[in-house]
Design brief:
Elements: E1 3-9, E2 16-21, H1 24-32, H2 39-42, E3 47-54, H3 57-68, H4 72-82, H5 90-93
Antiparallel strand pairs: 1-2, 1-3
């Protein structure tokens, strides 16, 4: 089973959210449709802008914690390295 670390955004250079899941399609769908109460729903964070997979839940959680402690500029650089237009990647994972 793969685990995913992912970044959601409200818009380009907008509010960011970092998460971990074992089902990226389901989790992104939940965020996009406001089915997750809390931060992403409150701040309109509905676009999947970056993700990475790993076979280890421990590695995924470790990476999530690392990214959460990064400066905002580093998170933006991570997104823009592979997604410079900040496209919503949800359709690409279906």
């Amino acid at each position: 089973m793969d685990y995913f670390v992912y970044l959601m955004a409200s818009q380009k250079n907008g509010t960011l959210y970092v998460g971990v899941t074992n089902n990226l399609v389901r989790r992104a769908y939940e965020h996009k449709n406001g089915l997750v109460e809390g931060f992403t729903d409150r701040y309109g964070v509905h676009q999947l802008v970056w993700f990475e997979s790993t076979p280890s839940v421990e590695a995924a959680i470790h990476k999530e914690k690392q990214i959460k402690n990064w400066k905002r500029e580093w998170k933006i650089a991570l997104i823009e390295k592979n997604n410079p237009q900040w496209l919503d990647l949800y359709e690409s994972i279906l």
